[in-house]
Amino acid sequence: xxxxVDNVHKRFGSTVAxxxxxxxxxxxxxLLLAGANGAGKTTLLRLLAxxxxxxxxxxxxxGEDPRRSTQQRWRLGLLSHxxxxxxxxxxxxxxxxxxxxxxxxADIVGPALADVDLTDQAAxxxxxxxxxxxxxxxxxxxxxxxxxxxxxxxxFTGLDRRSAGTLSTRLLMRTREAGVSSLLVTHxxxxxxxxxxxxxxxxxxxxxxxxxxxxxxxxxxQALCDHHQELAVHE
Amino acid sequence: MNDVPxxxxxxxxxxxxxxxxxxxxxxxxxxxxFFVLLVLLVYNFAFELGGAALWEIxxxxxxxxxxxxxxxxxxxxxxxxxxxxxxxxxxxxxVERGALYLAKMMGNVxxxxxxxxxxxPLFGLFxxxxxxxxxxxxxxxxxxxxxxxxxxxxxxxxMASHSRLREFxxxxxxLPVLIPALISCVAATGFILAxxxxxxxxxxxxxxxxxxxxxxxxFAVVFSTxxxxxxxxxxxx
Lengths: 235, 237
Description:
The structure holds two protein chains of two kinds. Chain A is 34% helix and 26% strand. Chain A is α/β, with parallel strands linked by helices. In chain A, helix 3 (91-101) packs across helix 4 and helix 5 (131-143) packs parallel to helix 6. Chain B is mainly alpha-helical. The radius of gyration of chain B is 19 Å and the shape is elongated. The two termini of chain B are 28 Å apart. In chain B, 47% of the residues are buried.
């Protein structure tokens, strides 16, 4: 499935978040969106998820505007630094609700909870979960419908090393499934190296680097991102 | 890929989720009911209602308390979606924006009618209202009045949810637009209560009621259709 960003500009009042971004993402692409705070990474992800629209230009998924196409949105899975879960519902109720939105039966809930080791917390309210448990449940929610594209907006935020490692392992399993693409926004670039096969660095709302990446060398990836961000400091 | 469920399936799922949450938290119904009770109590002592004054002032007392209570409920329409950015999950899901509007609107209607039915007996108790079948048309007025409030209130609640001034903005947007519907609600209620005047022939459906019920139905249909069409633009960032 093709994700296309065609000369996209996005403004919030007088603030320019994206200033002419072109990006094409095909199947089996695992892309790291890197950049300093305010570079436009989350804005770009939100445009692809259909949460907002461009001020100019076009964003399409499978040739259609994701804001208008429920069929194309069905193919997306969104995992954010916020859990996107209802605190007053139990883990099972949350998954049952979202499964229903995707046209899936309640029988999918049990295996989904087992996948993220939350079977014994099925009846517990999400509001009482730890941060790590919430993110694992959020991953289950985002992948219930086996999406073709995973949009990951700083999913490791607020997690301790162990929880981040657990989430990393599960994400790696999901993203290595055939035909699945992913776009990952994270400041933890060193960890991201194992996930990605392409790096895009944003600076000031523009793409300044778009390269393939075929090594697990996190330090090298960090150096590449730092290099492009340092160019901004010297300009 | 599974078939994407239709708009009514999604609306039903969203409504069910909201009702389940409200059952557990009572975050909306409780303050609304208590507000109406407080207003009725204050009016009771202020005007010493009973007898003929009831038919003249009672409808205004009832609907002013319902409308201001409804603002409490409308403020909370998108509260659950604001927490943990759940609205992003709904917008990213294969859910038509219109389904979200329908679910929230139906939820608001249910909560409003619930408050009205819970507080009507107390209104009757405070103001010596004689119970009888002549009050049944009130159900129609409550339903259509609530639908009118919810049709426009849900849209404006979505608009206000993006603003830091939402508590101030929502009443400012909703109340002026609601005036025509409120006039009909008060007038219709007055005609129904007047049928209970002692010595007067009891009419189940006073003639004058038809016009106002028709106005309310028209208001609800027109504004809910308009709001549904505009909701896409309002709910997105």
